[in-house]
Amino acid sequence: MAYAVKYQHELYGSSLKPGDVLVSNHPIAGGTHLPDITVITPVFDTTTNQLIFYTASRGHHRDIGGFQGISGNANATELYQEGASIISFKLVSHGQFDEEGIRKILVDEPAQYPNCVGTASLHDDLSDLRAQVAANAKGSALIQGLFEEYGREVVQVTPKFYMDRIQENAEIAVRKFLKQTSEKLGGRALSAADSLDNGTRIRLEIRINPDGSATFDFTGTGSEVMGNNNAPKSICLSAIIYCLRCLINEDIPLNQGCLSSIEVINPEGSILNPSDQAAVYAGNTQTSQRVVDVILKAFEACAASQGCMNSVGFFGGRDREPGSGYKFAYGETICGGSGAGPGWDGSSAVHCHMTNTRISDVEIMEKRYPIVLRDFSLRRGSGGRGAYRGGDGVVRVIECREPLTFSMISERRVSQPYGMHGGHDGASGENLIVRRAEGGKRRVVSLGPRGLVRLESGEQFIIRTPGGGGWGAPVENAAS
């Protein structure tokens, strides 16, 4: 988020006025993937009219158009195929919401490319953007209240007060952890590597200095890929912050101070620093998880969790709500097993690491969409065995009640979530299509890690998510 705000600040600078609100989602402007739209509001000193802060909110918008009418299309290979892209746009100017301008961006601009269309859910997109503007306004009011109560000198100007202190506390905590790690290592570097299911390698070497600074060097990581597993630089930085906060045994605030002592080497043109034309949807949902796996593996912190978000969406003709009559798009991420660690078992059926979404209630899904959820249960035994077991994944079976198009993007369908210190790997996941065949028979077809598929009424989509890796040798093998 910090890089998204910084980009807009450098672009507009002092030209912003009270009542202005900016919007952006492009990877070169600090974005993650295109559905994650960031709304940024400048905050001004009410007495001097000087720009003093920004408030920002980032929300995931399910439908922003795209290739074949599907945002997050599994077959996208270029950024333009993933929907509306916004480097910068003044959504609100002098207090006036520019509905026509943002409508053109969301509806008209994606449709200028071959086989692409704009959003079919403009009403939802506009409502969500207005909600983000309102959230920012609330944040701005709270900042103004802070200034009124304590004064600008205390909050912002005087060294080592409020804003400086919050970031400094985060930096101190990170440096303390890294100093302790450096002492244990005796100057030795940490390293780890892992692969995506397409074979792309992610390599990392961590060099920690005695003063608690460190270099995270991703040299040797594979090139930008023909597909949407590319991850913008912001994803890699988010993964590093997340892992450091997990490794530090202190409750520290989330802010840029976590990275103050960190240098990141991320070769240009790699899957973690791709070109500005690269498709990036799955970089946010899948590749981010592998970056976390590699970092935690380097620190030997715990076994791997399921390692993906199991992103599934389906799309159809008309909403089943009476009288609504608009095309619908539904998406969800599905839980799996988390990795075990030194002293704990992994958890089953949870989101872990770079995903934290709750799954939709079955009753709401079945009421709103033409599907029946035939099964949603634990995938028993999918967690890796060990002195501490990895958590189990889940089984989710979606049956169509009318023709639907499904898009599936996942990982760990080829590789398995690694165990550590003698613990067994977790089971890899599976994506299966159940087709109807002659004579009432069923034909089960593997979709692989990703794909776009049309299912007819009565056909099923089965998702079996990965289990987490185990930690330590299983008890029966301890003697050997």
UniProtKB/TrEMBL annotation:
* Gene Ontology cellular component annotations, sorted alphabetically: cytosol
Could you tell me which residue ranges the Hydantoinase B/oxoprolinase domain spans? Answer: 1-474
Q: Which domain of life is it from?
A: Eukaryota
From the UniProt record, which GO molecular function terms apply? Answer: 5-oxoprolinase (ATP-hydrolyzing) activity
Q: A Pfam family matched by this chain, by name?
A: Hydantoinase_B
Any one biological process term the GO annotation gives: glutathione metabolic process
InterPro entries listed in its UniProt record: Hydantoinase_B (IPR003692), Oxoprolinase-like (IPR045079)
Q: This chain belongs to which protein, by name?
A: Hydantoinase B/oxoprolinase domain-containing protein
